[in-house]
Amino acid sequence: MDSPTRSSTSVWALIAIVLASAALMVVSSPKSPPIPVSAHSGPVFGPACGAATIDGVVNPDEWSSASSQTFVMHSPVGAAPLTATLYVMNSGYYLYLGITINDDEFTSQGQFLPLGDAFRIDFDNDHSGSLFALGDDVLNISAGFPQFGDWYLYALPAAAQSDVLGGGTLDGIGAARRVGDLNHFELRHPLCSGDSLDFCLHPTDTVGFRLEYLDAEANGSNGGNRFFPGSGSTSVADIVIGQCSARDLFIYLPLLMKK
Ligand SMILES: [Ca+2]
Ligand SMILES: [Ca+2]
Ligand SMILES: [Ca+2]
Ligand SMILES: [Ca+2]
Fold it and tell me: Is the pTM value of this prediction over 0.85?
């Protein structure tokens, strides 16, 4: 039978082993990742470098280097949700956005939506976490011509109009069309055009945005509005601008690249 002294020694030896093992686990465990700093906690796109041909066809090859997410866009008044995929990338000079959405048809004009099916993209220029500051950049891409609109927020709560009407300039291009069973939208807009009615973004900058899809029906009626990431003025996702080269020519060489 063990004496009290020997039992006590065994207990202390066991404690020492447990403490040493715990210390080893602490030393060998990986560092926790840094917590990103943001004005809010919404989805984040980028940084991603690339350039695309703006022809209204979101070609997977030209957008292969983009940051992309697929999400459901909801209507605040109960219209059926739609599923969209957003692609984001930038070159040294332009921000590129490509969007596909499973609308059941592509309508280029309507009684209440004269431009037909359209995405309105509201930007939070200074990444404050809140949309609709006067002068904020707004882009519009529609099925109906001229398809691309470079707008700005000119009146509260959320009225936007063409930069040209406010003394600014039209900066960028866009195109939209029906591809298979999806509506495709593509645009590019300068990172920093010099127009005071546009944002001015530099590499590593973050800009907030919200997508709104305005659905025109084939009979010209209004099919309702859907939003991403939400319909509120603080429902904002982020784009982080990449440090990218100035190249903007996308060369598509399917016959040369394929075996
Ligand atoms: Ca394209
Ligand atoms: Ca402009
Ligand atoms: Ca603008
Ligand atoms: Ca439609």
Answer: no
CA of 144 to the centre of ligand 3 (A): 19
**Nearest ligand by distance to the CA of 194:** 2
What is the CA(101)–ligand 4 centre distance, in A?
Answer: 10
pLDDT one-digit tens code per residue, 157-201: 999 999 999 999 999 999 999 999 999 999 999 999 999 999 999
pLDDT band per the 50, 70, 90 thresholds, residue 13: low
Is residue 52 pLDDT above 90, yes or no? Answer: yes
- CA of residue 69 to ligand 1 center, whole Å: 17
SS3 string, the chain, reads CCCHHHHHHHHHHHHHHHHHHHHHHHHHCCCCCCCCCCCCCCCEECCCECCCCCCCCCCCCCCCCCEEEEEEEECCCCCCCEEEEEEEEECCCEEEEEEEECCCCCCCCCCCCCCCCEEEEEEECCCCCCCCCCCCEEEEEECCCCCEEEEEEEECCCEEEEHHHHCCCCCCEEEEEEECCEEEEEEEEECECCCCCCCECCCCCEEEEEEEEEEECCCCCEEEEEEECCCCCCCCEEEECCCCCCCCCCCCCHHHHCC
Tell me, what's the pLDDT at 146?
A: 96
Residues with CB under 5 A from ligand 3 (ion): 137, 150, 152, 163, 197-198
Q: Which residues are registered as beta bridge partners of 73?
A: 82
Domain range 44-250, CATH class: mainly beta
Model confidence at 249, in pLDDT bands (50, 70, 90)?
low
